[in-house]
Amino acid sequence: MNLTTRFEVVKRLGGGGMGDVFLARSLIDSNQPYVAVKRIRSLFAHDAVARARFEREATVSTLLRHPNIVSTNEYGVDDEGPYFIMDFVEGQSASDLLASTSADAEPLPLDVALSILFDVASALAFAHEFKSRSNAIHGIVHRDLSPDNILIGYDGMARLS
Q: Is 79 a catalytic residue?
């Protein structure tokens, strides 16, 4: 089933070098919360190396289940190319949080900054030490650690995207 027959894209949330992330809601289940859909940019959809990198990111991210990592729930390919569906984190990015504190001339409180850093370090340690069923370490390295990829939920928890 095509992604566009199951979800309605509400708006673009952001993007990086290879992909764009969109807020979407289910067209099938009205009780399902919003999700984030990451799609490879059309520029890279037919680039075998970029597509393999995107697919590897999707595959690895579906394995990682940790409270401080945004969960990836599904990976697929449709007429528009590869995509993956992640939990939508209601809140803001660390980048937006830092920008708002800079605009107010109020520094980020130390306890808030330390809490965010602790959550991110916990996520990175989990990913780096992640073992497969055969007990082999995957050696996962996050290659785009930036404030844009740290999402702070309204629940106060930071999640790595």
A: no
